[in-house]
Amino acid sequence: MKKYYVYIAKCKDETLYTGYTVDLKDREDKHNSGEGAKYTRHRRPVKIVYSEEFKTMSEAMKREAEIKKLSRIDKENLIKPS
């Protein structure tokens, strides 16, 4: 069964980028090769620092939208280890 992930990546300039993917390692590699999102192209290297797993793309996209609406502080709190 295919899995979908929402992730937060920390960029070289300390900004945070949120996206979704089916393969976290491949997505990080794409961001770092310049093939990822336009936002991350000039902020390399990026490191995926947080992820959540979902069964459907719809669930992942909904969660991505929720995370994108969070403040920087709330995103930092998600990233912090428990």
Largest sheet: 3 strands, antiparallel
Q: What is the alpha-carbon Rg in Å?
A: 12 Å
> What's the SSE pattern?
EEHHEHH
End-to-end separation = 28 Å
Low-confidence stretches: none
Overall helicity: 40-55%
CATH architecture tag: 3-Layer(aba) Sandwich
Number of β-strand runs: 3
Principal-axes geometry comes out as globular
Describe this entry's structure for a reader.
By secondary structure, the protein is an alpha+beta fold. It has a single domain, classed as GIY-YIG endonuclease (3-Layer(aba) Sandwich), CATH 3.40.1440.10. Helix content is 43%, strand content 28%. Strand 1 (4-11) and strand 2 form a beta hairpin. The chain is globular, with a radius of gyration of 12 Å.
Strand and helix layout:
Blueprint: E1 4-11, E2 16-21, H1 24-33, H2 38-41, E3 46-54, H3 57-69, H4 72-79
Structure summarized in a few sentences:
This protein is of the alpha+beta class and 82 residues long.
Characteristic key phrases:
82 residues; alpha+beta; GIY-YIG endonuclease; three-stranded antiparallel beta sheet; 43% helix
